[in-house]
Amino acid sequence: MALTNGAISVAESLLGRGGIPDEFSRLHSVQDAPRWKPAREAYDYAARETGQTVDRLLLVAVHPWDIHGANAAGLKTAWINRTGAFYPSYFTAPDIEAEELVALAGKLAES
Fold this sequence. Notes:
Blueprint: E1 2-4, H1 8-17, E2 27-29, H2 40-50, E3 58-61, H3 64-73, E4 76-80, E5 96-98, H4 101-110
Parallel strand pairs: 1-2, 3-4, 4-5
Helix pairs in contact: 2-3
């Protein structure tokens, strides 16, 4: 599942350009949630939509603010650090860090 702060059509376009649109069973927009990310209500909405509790979800994101918000809401988090940047110390650190999605998949398979 993908959860975007933008329109679903934008997420579809981005996933299509990345060659991974079929890897997501559902696309959701926080436009249908009570509040936008990084508010807890957005992540609670995602949990309801998947039929899971937040502690069973993993948010994968490139934005530290999204990692921080998801962590505060009780999700596990993975930061895709595409540029080798330092993670901002004023945000809660991610549970996992990887340079790209394939590397993240490898890390998840190891655990």
